[in-house]
Structures are given as C-alpha cells and as structure tokens.
Amino acid sequence: MQKNTSMNDNQHKDSKKSSYEGYREIINPIKPHAKTQSNTKKNSFIESYFFYPKLWHKILAYALLPFSCIYISIALCKKYLTKKMRFDIKILSIGNLVSGGSGKTPFCIALTQHLHKQGYTNIYIVLRGYKRKSKGLIQVSCNGKILCDVAQSGDEAMLLATQTQGNVIVSEDRTKALEYIQTLTHTQTKQNSQLIKNIPQNIPIVILDDAYRFNFNKFDILLEPTLKPYFPFVLPSGYYRFPKRFYKKCDLHLKENKDYKRKVSLYHLQDSHIESKYILATAIANPSRLKPYLPKNVVYEYYLADHADFDFNTLSTLLKQYNATHILMTQKDYVKCMNFMLPVALLMLDITIESYVLDKIESFLSHTHL
To answer: Which residue windows are transmembrane per the record (predicted)?
Structure first.
C-alpha cells in the first residue's frame, strides 16, 4: 500500500481545517437565477445527448443500440457469472444505475456522519479515486487525519476524507482494498474481541462507493435521482449501466426527494461586506442540476468536464474580467483549489436521509449474519 509521508502533522491539521473553518455567511434556501453568460452556450454534448436530446441525438441513440446489447451482456456476465466473493466484514454498497450525478458522495458523507453519531467508529470508505494522478491502493485518511494530497486521492475521496472521521481508501481493485481491510480489522478484532462483544458498534464497517456491479456479499443500496435520462437504454444509447428494472434487484432502493433529500446552502469563505457577484466554476457531472440552487447574481458560468482540474490563472482572470467578488463552486470542486488563495463561496450540497432508511441500514449492521 502506498502512503504519502511528506506531509507533517501540522499540514494534516491545516488541510482538515481549510475545509471547515472561515465560513461567514449562510444563505438558505437559494432561489433559481436568471440566465447568465457561460463558456458553453449550450449543454455539453454528453448532457444534451443523454438528458435533452435533439433529433440527431435520438437517431444516434437508436443506431447505437446493438452496442448497448453487447455492453449489457458483458455487464450481466460479470455480475452474475463470476464467483461471489465473501468477506468477514459488514459491507454497505452505495450505488446507482445511471452513470453519475445521483448524489453518492454526499450520501456516503451523510451516512458516515450518522453512523459516527450512533457510536460506530471503525468505518472504512472505499472508492476508485477516479481521475487521481496515482495508482494502486492508497489510504487517504485514518480516522479523519489526511495522509495524502488531492492529486493522489482524487476529488471525491478527498471530500470524503475532509468531511468524515472515517478511514478513506482509494483503489482501482475493490477486492484488494477489501482484503487489506479484512486483514487489518481481523487483527484488531482478535485484540479487542471483548470490547466488540460488549460494544457492537465497534465492529468494522465498509462503505463501498459505486459498487453495485461487484459480486460481493454486501448490502446493496441504489440511489435514484430525480433527474432521469431521456432514454431507458444502457450505455452507449442511454445513460444507464443496468436496465431500470434492476432497481428491484437490491436491498434498498432509495428515491431522491422521498427517501433522501438534497439541501443546498451558500457559504462564504471570506467576509463579504459588499454585494457579492459570482463566477460559477464547476467540474461535476450534469452541472445543469445546480441551476435551481444558484444565487441570482451569478455573472458568468465556467464549466469543465467531470473531475477536471482548475487553473489558478484562468479563475483569477475571470474574477477580474467580470468584476466578480467570489468564485462559486461545490465542495467537490473546492478540494482541488484550496491552495489558490482566491475569494471563494461554496455551494454546500448536503443530503438528509429519512430515519426509516437509517433504521433499515442499522438493522443490517446489528445483525450477526454477514
């Protein structure tokens, strides 16, 4: 396993503080805003094709259906014909059927924070670390202490690390990550068997991000966002990775605005004594879903591909060009820009999970059978 040991403890603490401290102004709720200038006059091709298709998009989607048949055949074979792997740890899988934008990361944050409040302290969060500049298995945080930088972890993993007290691990190979955790926790369990017997919340728990397709012994949670793809097809004709009927093939099917709700607040990282004007800068999937939550005084919208890196000079130039007071971005975007020293306001995208959902998850965790 790789670890970055170049950061000292003070740097770890500063990195942790930078994602929490300095907020001065809270505005909630945020109302929709009028149309503004943007570096993309229309939706990106991906967003237009999957969600707001024109005639030629629709023709292309149907032309690609044979490839969708090949895709789903391979996906189903991998899911159902591979040998099921069993691990002696409780595994919660947070997944979706669409290819992104369902709120998995904020859901993982909300769930981890809730479990900590309930006394569960031995929590591991495993994800791929998409678009990171490293390879292999890397532990990003240990009980909330940051162990590497965002280039090594990727933006989603760093967001999870800064927002929770869990142990965040990135690995392209989920099996290796689970084997590593199982070995680690097996030693801990032997040393603290009596403590775990007396306090069941000390059992090790793994939260797997985007793991529905894997054939492990796990409690499958599928999130269904309100923004639905135009076609019910799988990739590349549609935005689904498995057919919609697979919502019935999980342990817990959760619908946005029913079983879990997004709450958006605006936080300023610096004092703002004048009327704020914002440059929206974001690199998330389906950025149009931010539209209902933007403040009215956004003067320019700057979009990049999902997980893309930001350039300091570009953001600084945009601030001056449009006479804006703040760069407006999501928490996932901000973890890549914490060292830019620019005036930033954050769209805090939080998830509220209904109590009956949390009860079902805790019931699984308290059950002795794996």
So the answer is: 59-77
Average pLDDT over residues 153-166: 96
User: Would you say 136 is a known binding-site residue?
Assistant: no
Q: What is the mean pLDDT of residues 29-52?
A: 69
Per residue, what are the HEC states of the chain? CECCCCCCHHHHHHHHHCCCCCCCCEECCCCCCCCCEECCCCCCHHHHHHHCCCHHHHHHHHHCHHHHHHHHHHHHHHHHCCCCECCCCEEEEEEECECCCCCHHHHHHHHHHHHHHCCCCCEEEEECCCCCCCCCCEECEECCEECCCHHHHCHHHHHHHHHCCCEEEECCCHHHHHHHHHHHHHHHHHHCHHHHHHCHHHCCEEEEECCCCCCECCEEEEEECCCCCCCCCECCCCCECCCHHHHHCCCEEEEECCCEEEEEEEEECCCCCCCCCEEEEECCCCHHHHHHHCCCCEEEEEECCCCCCCCHHHHHHHHHHCCCCEEEEEHHHHCCCCCCCCCEEEEEEEEEECHHHHHHHHHHHHCCCC
103 marked ligand binding residue: yes
Q: Does 98 count as an annotated binding residue?
A: yes
User: Is 228 known as a binding-site position?
Assistant: no
226 annotated as belonging to a binding site for a ligand: no
